[in-house]
């Protein structure tokens, strides 16, 4: 069915394994949708080296080149796109899906972002999805709310496969360290386009005013944008500028916080929220996207310019009073990861077998 002259029969159909050209393979999310015991019948091709880039960097992904698809078609059974098409025009993406059709390899698309966090104007991302969503043999997203939004916008209902745990089980089992007081943290990172670190930080300073033993901590990367955020805030709040955290440093940092605040102006899903959920750190997120579908969290509204002070203050004070303990069970997360891997395997098998996964309305349940 997926065979033509010059392109071999998909190896996965003969052997029981499925070979996936995953864009990318090296992203933490993608690495965690495989079975945790390593006994996964899905084989993901490694990211092709990027000329001139450091070893291990997957962007910009070479697999998005139609010529790569044609040359390497015999090496994969399914093409699964997650991230990395931020800078691709509709013309580039049409060429990609035409190449996949030419070599008869199905496209699976996971809709992580319904609006690109790096684009001020949503038009370019919408135009990209207008090409990819209709062309995909199967669609996946992370929450029921996002699936409903895709259905409204494109008339297709993705399978819902929940976000896997980010923190390894051994680390997720580590007790939270004892502390005095109540720390509200916001990480400005490098000032991503969809972030409003200055506005949210200033609102947090007002929110904790008068709360006993409460303080605000702001972290930022030591690059030009991060230092600019720090310089604007350092006289009013505890600001720490440093290189990007390693995984262990990030997990230690998050467990030093009682409340981690997401300073986003738009967004869809959040790996940061998942990480906090693994570590038992409460999250305060804006009422946008589908964060509340992902994991328990507090929310604040956005005003015309910046965060809504009243709702942000109310949420911070609720967190201070109630100290919510929304921590994922590591054993349940392990079971969830196995269910996530099985859901992907099922989708791959169906599209390789003839495209029956189109417009799936079945939720792939995954326990928390």
> Per DSSP, what share of the residues sits in E-state strands of 2 or more residues?
5-15%
Biggest sheet architecture: 6 strands, parallel
- Taking the alpha carbons of the first and last residues, their distance comes to 38 Å
Alpha-carbon Rg, integer: 22 Å
| Quaternary assembly | single chain
Q: Give the strand order, joined by hyphens, for the main sheet.
A: 2-1-3-4-5-6
The tally of helices reads 14
- Proportion in helices: 25-40%
Low-confidence stretches: 1-14, 360-368
Structural class: alpha/beta
Please tell me what the overall shape is. Answer: globular
Please provide the ordered H/E string of secondary-structure elements: HEHEHEHEHEHEHEHEHEHEHEHEHH
What is the CATH architecture annotation of the largest domain?
3-Layer(aba) Sandwich
**CATH homologous superfamily annotation of the largest domain:** Glycogen Phosphorylase B
How confident overall, as mean pLDDT? 91
Q: Can you tell me the number of structural domains?
A: 2
What's the gist of this structure?
The chain has 14 helices and 12 strands.
Question: Could you walk me through the main structural features you see in this protein, from its secondary elements to its overall organization?
Answer:
- This protein has two domains: 11-165 and 335-352, Glycogen Phosphorylase B (Rossmann fold), CATH 3.40.50.2000; 169-322, Rossmann fold (3-Layer(aba) Sandwich), CATH 3.40.50.2000.
- 38% of the residues lie in helices and 15% in strands.
- It has 14 helices and twelve strands.
- Helix 3 packs parallel to helix 4 (90-103), helix 4 (90-103) runs parallel beside helix 5 (123-135) and helix 8 crosses helix 13 (309-322).
- It is globular.
- It is of the alpha/beta class and 368 residues long.
């Amino acid at each position: 069915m997926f065979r033509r002259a010059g392109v071999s029969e998909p190896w996965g159909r003969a052997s029981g394994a499925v070979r996936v050209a995953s864009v990318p393979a090296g992203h933490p999310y993608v690495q965690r949708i495989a079975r945790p015991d390593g006994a996964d019948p899905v084989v993901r091709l490694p990211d092709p080296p990027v000329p001139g880039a450091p070893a291990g960097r997957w962007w910009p992904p070479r697999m998005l080149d139609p010529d790569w698809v044609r040359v390497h078609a015999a090496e994969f059974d399914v093409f699964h796109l997650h991230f990395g098409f931020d800078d691709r025009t509709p013309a580039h993406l049409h060429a990609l899906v035409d190449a996949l059709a030419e070599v008869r390899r199905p496209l699976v698309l996971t809709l992580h972002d319904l609006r690109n966090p790096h684009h001020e104007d949503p038009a370019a991302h919408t135009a990209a999805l207008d090409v990819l969503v209709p062309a995909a043999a199967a669609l996946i997203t992370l929450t029921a709310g996002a699936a409903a939004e895709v259905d409204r916008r494109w008339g297709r209902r993705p399978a819902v496969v929940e976000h896997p745990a980010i923190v390894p089980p051994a680390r997720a089992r580590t007790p939270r360290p004892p502390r005095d007081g109540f720390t509200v943290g916001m990480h400005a990172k490098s000032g991503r386009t969809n972030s409003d670190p200055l506005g949210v930080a200033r609102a947090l300073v007002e929110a904790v005013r008068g709360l006993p033993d409460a303080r605000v901590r702001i972290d930022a990367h030591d690059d030009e944008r991060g230092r600019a955020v720090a310089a604007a805030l350092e006289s009013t709040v505890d600001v720490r500028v440093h290189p990007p955290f390693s995984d262990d440093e990030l997990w230690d940092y998050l467990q030093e916080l009682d409340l981690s605040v997401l300073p986003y102006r738009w967004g869809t899903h959040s790996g940061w929220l998942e990480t906090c959920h693994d570590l038992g750190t409460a999250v305060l997120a804006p009422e946008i996207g589908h964060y509340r579908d992902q994991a328990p969290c507090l929310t604040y509204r956005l005003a015309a310019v910046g965060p809504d002070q009243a709702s942000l203050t109310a949420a911070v004070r609720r967190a201070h009073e109630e100290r919510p303990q929304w921590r994922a069970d590591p054993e349940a997360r392990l079971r969830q990861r196995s269910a996530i891997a099985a859901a992907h395997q099922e989708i791959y098998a169906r599209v390789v077998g003839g495209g029956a996964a189109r417009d799936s309305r079945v939720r792939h349940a995954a326990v928390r």
